[in-house]
Amino acid sequence: MKKILIIATAILSALISGCASQPLSTFDIFHPQDLNGLVSSGQYVQKADNFFVLNDSSSSMDEDYLGAGYPAQPCPNKLSIEKEILNRINLTIPDLKLTSSIRSFGFGPCLDWGFTRLNQAPSPYSKSAFGSGIDTLTCASGGTPMDSGIEGTTNDLSTTTGNIAVLILSDGEVDSAPVAEVKALKQKYGDRLCVYTVWVGNEQEKYGQTLLNQLSDMTICGFGTTAERISSPDGMTKFVQSVFLKGTTPPVADCSALDDDADGINNCKDKCLNTPKGAHVNQFGCWIVDVKFDNDKSNIKPQYYRELDNAVTVINQNPGVNIEVQGHTSSTGTVEYNQRLSERRALAVKNYLSSKSAHAGGTLTARGYGLTQPIDTNETEEGRSNNRRVQLEVLQ
Known about the structure:
By secondary structure, this protein is α/β, with parallel strands linked by helices. It contains eleven helices and 14 strands. The relative contact order is 0.10.
């Protein structure tokens, strides 16, 4: 009984509203951007394998569209805007192998007196075939049974394989929010499915945009937008790119084959990736001045002057570089002892380098790190020896 009343009400509404009374509008020429280069270059790959449109052809779409971005003569109604959006999408889609379909919802003469109509059955996509499908959207009438349209789309998708993009165009003025139907659609097709919505409404119908966004958000991977946001060639390009394409992840270079600072230590092993050319580095790629100090001493012995003079040469060859002279120790002894010792030794080396180098435009600073930054294990004598070092760090 309830179903009969709904149908009777819908018939009355359709008879009162009738078909779209005004002629379809002629829009300014749209100049699409070419996405084929992104695909052919390998920067982007195809994301959607199926593109199914669900178009609102109810009586509210016969109302004038008052938004911006679609200059036309005469003033377009909302159905005309939907068709223009689909035409612009069609012009912008790159050369992809797709299955496409168009379904509408409403009631009355524009939908053969049904709540939903399959305007174009699922078929291999081509611009000409899809354009013919758009042309079948001739008028708007009746209520807004979006739930029936979604149920129809659920069945239309039954033979598809691969990823699915469902696009819903509407002003959001629906008889009832089709939340359950979208949930069922998502449950049936899972991660293969993304729902995108385009709100084709006027300012006083903002609540319709909220509903459409709610529906697209239910599939996580989808999103909602508005007719105005995708009206320009740039906006339409971004929309089509987001629906149909995804960026490729550039291959990760093998770090063992790279040596960015040309110090002879590959990037996998290099713990100091910005040492200047000519610097003496250890097995970890760090610029080390091989100066040994007596126990608890920080004075530099003459036998290490040659090593330090080499560091001076490197500094002079790199004017403007900022260098931190770092003192490091092993873990032998207390934290406090090692901190003071590292500071004294770093300062001694810094003072020697400052007295010998021009260091035009750059700075030399000294800092002790104590035992806090080992580069090797402290469990062996060899490892502790590597940790007891004065290291020159180029500051960024």
